[in-house]
Amino acid sequence: MITLTEQAAFKVKEMMQDQENPEALFLRVSVQHGGCSGFSYGLGFDEDKQDGDALLEQHGVRILVDKDSQPLLKGTVIDYKESMIGGGFSIDNPNATATCGCGSSFRTATDAGKPSDC
């Protein structure tokens, strides 16, 4: 469903070490309504697996994806890239047919979401 690159996993594990109780954490990847294009991505840490969550493990990172987000994220690749001006996560979602200029929101061919003001 989701591919977390080795570089992204390394960065996630590094960030988890700054949290309380890092060994209990999951990386939660989700989609919410909002953003310029209709949907926005959510990446964060969670200690609790909910009913309907898909559980994946890649490069030593346990990943949760909620039931509603799963079809919107199928085939998505999450990477982390460093540059001279900093670094950041990039999300390559094959389901996105349109994205905003900053790349943090999208819509699909079958669902426009609920856009919010940018």
From TrEMBL:
InterPro entries noted in UniProt: ATAP, ATAP_core_dom, FeS_cluster_insertion_CS, HesB-like_dom_sf
Top-level taxon: Bacteria
Annotated SUPFAM superfamilies: HesB-like domain (SSF89360)
Core domain segment(s): 2-103
PROSITE patterns assigned to the protein according to its UniProt record, in alphabetical order: HESB (PS01152)
Name the UniProt record assigns to this protein: Iron-sulfur cluster assembly protein
Species this chain originates from: Laceyella sediminis
